[in-house]
Amino acid sequence: QVQLVESGGGLVQAGGSLRLSCAASVSIFSISVMAWYRQAPGKQRKLVATITTGGNTNYADSVKGRFTISRDNAKNTVYLQMNTLKPEDTAVYYCNAASLIGNPWGQGTQVTVSS
């Protein structure tokens, strides 16, 4: 199991920015695909962005052009830079190893965007 700790969430106004961090207990270089997910109130957890060891990224349509996923292998950390935040981005954000089946979820970090 890979332990993951999310941080960086908070309360921001619409149009603002936040950078989320995800610290992993193992070298993320050994994890082929890292991902950020989010779960809004009353909604299912959804995939937000992915990044591979090769640096390939993919984004949900709802965040494309506004969010950027990146990884720092030396720090065993994955980031999610969120710009031009919208109220609909409000959710608990989680990171996980998308390529590891059944890896447990962390506590996530709350992002609240006010209008």
Structure description:
This protein is mainly β. Helix content is 0%, strand content 50%.
Counting helices, strands and paired strands, the structural category is mainly beta
Number of beta strands: 10
Mean pLDDT: 96
The rounded distance between the terminal residues' Cα atoms is: 39 Å
Beta-strand level of the residues, as a percent range?
over 45%
What is the CA-atom radius of gyration, in angstroms?
A: 13 Å
Strand order across the biggest sheet? 2-10-9-4-5-6
Spans of at least 5 consecutive residues whose pLDDT stays below 50 are none
Strand/helix succession? EEEEEEEEEE
Q: Which oligomeric form is depicted?
A: single chain
| Count of individual helical segments | 0
The largest β sheet comes out as: 6 strands, mixed
Which short descriptors sum up this protein?
mainly beta, 115 residues, single chain, 0% helix
Quick synopsis:
By secondary structure, the protein is an all-beta fold.
How do the strands and helices of this protein lay out in sequence?
Blueprint: E1 4-7, E2 10-13, E3 18-24, E4 33-39, E5 46-52, E6 57-59, E7 67-72, E8 77-82, E9 91-97, E10 109-114
Parallel strand pairs: 2-10
Antiparallel strand pairs: 1-3, 3-8, 4-5, 4-9, 5-6, 7-8, 9-10
